[in-house]
Amino acid sequence: MASPHRKSKFRPIWDFPGFGGLSVGFFAFLYVPILVLVAYSFNGSKFAMVWSEFSWRWYLKLLENDDIHSAAINSLIVAFFAAPAATIMATLAALVMVRGGPFRSRAFTAGLITLPLMVPEIVTAVATLIFFALLNINLGLINIILAHTVFCIPFAYMPIRAALEAMDPGLEVAAQDLYADRWDAFRYVTLPLLTPGIMSGFMLAFVISIDDFIITLMVAGAGSTTLPVYIYSMIRTGVTPEVNAVSTLLLAVSVILVSVYWLLSSANRKGEAIG
Amino acid sequence: MRKNVAVDIQQVTKIYGTGNAAVTAVNNVTLQIYDNEFLTLLGPSGCGKTTLLRMIAGFEDMTKGHINLFGEEIEDLPPNQRPVNTVFQHYALFPHLSVYENVAFGLRRLKKSEAEIDHRCKEVLALTQMEALAERRPSQMSGGQQQRVALARALAPNPKVLLLDEPLSALDLKLRQAMRDELKQLQQKTGITFIFVTHDQEEALAMSDRIVVISEGKVQQVGTPQAVYEAPANRFVANFIGEANMLEASCKTTGKNMTFTLVGGGTLKISTPDVAAGDAVTIMIRPEKVKVLAKTGKKTTPSSLQMEAKVIEQTYLGSVTHLDLACDGQTLKACINQGAHASFATGDEVLIEIPADNCRVLRS
Questions:
Q1: Which domains does chain B have, with CATH numbers?
Q2: Segment B148-174, tens digit of pLDDT
Q3: Which among B106, B135, B136 has the least Cβ separation from residue A178?
Q4: B139–A272: do the CB atoms touch at under 8 Å?
Q5: Domain at A58-274, CATH homologous superfamily
Q6: Is the ipTM of this complex over 0.85?
């Protein structure tokens, strides 16, 4: 511990003038709009920007809105199919890239897997729309699930690859030395150790899928509207307090998902440390 | 008594890469390792000893040659079908499993019954004194404890041969010395053939029944610790194991007792079978065999060479003192017992005596 009397050569970052104010400003810019949105979702007034009283009114109204229900259910269906599918493919891709040994065009493949992260989403969206139109694939939600699976793969891939790269390949060698064939080594050593990474990939894919607007807007046909697309259509007819309420719910789902994951993984870590 | 061969290594060669980039890691090694033997593969890092071990375990393919295990060819078997287990340098314990489950891992893959697994796990955990920590995770243990778990895990399936890849190198000195004795006892208790890889000559001398000295992919000498120390086969072995004084000389006469004339002057009569007159040779003598006498001292042994020397440095090490002596333009090392001799100071003129019986003639 550095004593306050002694001058250390390396000053702690908070010693710099203005650092505190700057960070407060930074976080305010990030979170104040969201806090305002959440607060106003409990606003009893009919006008979105005028506070009158605390009320559950808009949430109750949401309950009565069948369009929002079906949009929310569509979003969940899409995410529940697309995120696991993308996670499985991302896991397989990571295993090949990290444990597959050298193969021709390995670097090229590595780039190809993560390229969709760099491609402007509107390009992917238009391309996917044209693709479905050309092949005359018109399966409603399944179209969205297919599109989401594809663009969620690189998101799921990044944390899984990182986890696999951090894992000691010597452990798999040790498993083989102890009479495990390649499948057993994967099942009893690689997979359990990779699970936290796979879970992170899954959560990321899930949130990205739930949240996606541009691609879904292009691909979604009539009757397969998802929640973000529906919220957008609500805003076009004016910002109602209902939009605040539905956005707050969406936010709550994301926060709960991430918290559950964080609690699970930290409980796991504690188990390792204390036992 | 005819010894049973556990591992028969026949003309094994391993070449990494091709063309100009090809590196020969193991060069035509032939070696028999006996059943119930503690054998050490000793050599500097990069000499090919670990590659040889990995080929026995099945983690590396051979470029040429054969390896038989108790008379059976194993070269086409993948590692998980070879009845050998490995203690890895960094232990490679499974972090998500308890100590007990780590030890049970091999037995479970062999589809043993639960009762058998439990019995055997308890047995090896007792053998390695780790019963009390059976429910711990590897991350909650010290290096020495992890080392024991790695040993228990590799011993649990009762392998025919146990491979140890520098398992002590990650431990601190005190623990390393304690583990030496323990490993040796464990080998004797279990009767399993141990093949131990190390670059530490002290470890090799302390534990092994036989030592295989390897350099640049080739076997330099195979023998008991005494044999490799006292009768090294060549300059490399003499220098790598212990300290050695090297005196250049040439052979003068043929016959039973040949006379060797040192480059710096002086002669020694040594009986040695395999040199001919005119050969340039190196005469090796261990520092503790060099006798150091006061300038006025008398010759103690008749068949020894006596030379004048000067103490240029002395290092006090408690039980012994190391002396660096300038003698005929080269530096000789001597090691004298504390108390047994008069002490010398830096700068003292002394007489040194090189007893012929303790000299070893090496081909240059």
A1: 5-239 (3.40.50.300), 245-362 (2.40.50.100)
A2: 999 999 999 999 999 999 999 888 888
A3: B106
A4: yes
A5: MetI-like (1.10.3720.10)
A6: no
